[in-house]
Amino acid sequence: MRKLITLFMLTGILLSPVISKAQDAATDAAAVDTTETVEIAPVAAPTIVDDEIIEEEKGFHQVIKEKFIEGDPAYMAPVLICLILGLAVALERIITLNLSTTNTKKLLLRVEDALEQGGIEAAKDVTKSTKGPVASIFTQGLMRYSEGIEMVEKSIIAYGSVEMGRLEKGLIWISLFISLAPMLGFMGTVIGMIGAFDAIEAAGDISPSLVAGGIKIALLTTVAGLIVAIILQLFYNYCVAKIDSLVNDMEDASISLVDILVRYKLTK
Question: What are phi and psi of 131, to 5 degrees?
């Protein structure tokens, strides 16, 4: 439930710029309507030298908005939803993976000191009070200490697989959005091309402007889908690399824990 609430909060954060832009647009439209009712004295139009018109530079968000409208919101909206949901899941995974990171060297030193001072129970208290998958694996291994070192190793291996599955949870959704976004873009392109050919058939003539305009609108959905897939692929690769690093730490720390328990058993 906590992860679901976090996912909705991240989605709200990602949607807040779009909502604020819509509110600003509505405010500007209202301001234009109120200014049209006010009578303004005629002012002499400024002279334009050599018929040169200086256009205001458009902002990045304005360009994105125009391209979104040109590509037909009916086909661009699903691609945008894939981006928002994919980023929400990716950010939730990144936060979770970063919180799962543990200083294994420091934890091993604390466990070894606890074993020397208070035995297995003291070591359990140390691992139970530490967050992260490495500490959870240590706890499972220490709970099996009375059954022998072999059972400790089996317990560590079994519970390590469980922790690995928890770390990889949610990656399948990011992979789904990576595959789905270009597909939706291609679908919009194909539908747009069909519409362009229908317009050519209805006109009875191949007009370059008609064909070029239809193709441009159709290809915008493909570009949007590819951009979304590229962005999500970067986050996906980061999550995979982070999981691999955590798994390597778990394996190295588990081997070190077994060595510590063997030495403790020999000196006991």
Answer: -90, 155
pLDDT tens profile 98-146: 988 888 888 889 888 888 888 888 888 888 888 888 888 888 888 888 8
pLDDT, mean of residues 34-40: 42
Cα(34)–Cα(45) distance, rounded to whole angstroms?
Answer: 22
H helices present in the chain, as ranges: 2-37, 60-70, 73-99, 104-128, 133-143, 149-167, 171-203, 208-267
- For residues 253 and 108, is the Cβ–Cβ distance under 8 A? yes
Buried-state track 239-263, b at ≥16 Cβ within 10 A, e below 16: beebbeebbebbeebbebbbebbee
Q: Which amino acid is at 57?
A: E
Task: Give how far the C-alpha of residue 212 lies from the chain's centroid of Cα atoms, to the nearest Å.
Answer: 35
Q: Which residue has the tokens 């256009």?
A: 55
Q: For residue 116, how many other CB atoms are within 10 A of its CB?
A: 12
- Residues with Cβ within 8 Å of residue 41, at least 6 apart in sequence: none
Predicted confidence band at 179 (pLDDT cuts at 50, 70, 90)? very high
In the chain, where are the structural domains located? 104-168+247-267
The 10 Å CB-count burial string (b at 16+, else e) for 156-165 is beebbeebee
